[in-house]
Give the backbone structure.
Amino acid sequence: MAHEHVHEHPHAAGDDHAEPHDHEPARPGPRLTGAFTPGEARQARRLTIVLVIVASFFVFELAGAIAARSVVLQADAAHLLMDVLALAMSLLAMRLAVRRPTPRFTFGLRRAEPVAAIFNATLVLGATVEIVSEAVAELRGHGSPNATIMLYVAVAALGVNGASAWLIHGAMHDGHDHAAHGPGDPDNPDEKKSHGHTLNLRGAWLHLLGDTLGALAALAAAIVIRVGGPTAVDPIASFVVAVILVLGAVRLMRDATLVLLEAAPPHLPIATIRDAILEFPGVCDVHDLHVWMLGAGHDAITAHVRATISDATLGARLSQKIRARFDVEYVTVQIETDGGDPCGAPPSQYRAP
């Protein structure tokens, strides 16, 4: 049995043997400069702007929460402090994720972003426990908050946190122009690179969303108390924020954990990829097909393919086809040809995925 290995990844982008299929333009491979693409640079700038805004506003909100004696505002301020750390972690993860591969980290440090996402989700869960604890304590012996101060601080917090969350949400989609390029367009290489940081940015956005909800809950509580409603509405509003934060944190942690466990991403179903390979001229069987995520937006596919023909370009053409159709960053194809019956029963040492 003859074996032909073809790797379609950053190092193979300019290889002589990696010839694109007829009528299919070659797509630029991932860059290895260790620098941000224009889309990633815009994302990093937005994160930096939000980090400065949040760090500056934390002092104001904490002072106002103490002056107003509001537990929901104090909880929001405490969470804002965690945001500073979370945003700094997100920026660091973005920088690590674009570093060049090394002899030890041959895929680079793509996994820094799901690690940062889990870290951020853990911080959110920790903040939620503190929020609930403070709310329960206030329900048992809740004083009367100053509704006027509470109202002013809540309005300011809602504006600052809402604007920050909007900036991060916009950064998650920065570089995507589906109207002009369409999803997965090969002429828009920055699109995939921007999308690659989405998991990391979701962690930062989740923190800011929690702060926005906390400010909204504080505003509602301040209005209720100001018009003569029960003061217990202040800690009760904290429970609503806590539930929303837990749901978002658990989902983020689940998605990041799936990346670390090398699960096949939902947008790359194994059956669809297998069918696409089998439809390629000259291919009669595929086995040991593996699909996983290096990091959100950075996917990899490896496959052993049995061929009916002996063609030195088959592996390169098939790799290029897979990469172009599924927008995958790393593709490795091993071509196997037998004398006699190339598509008989596969040898026992091969296992189905």
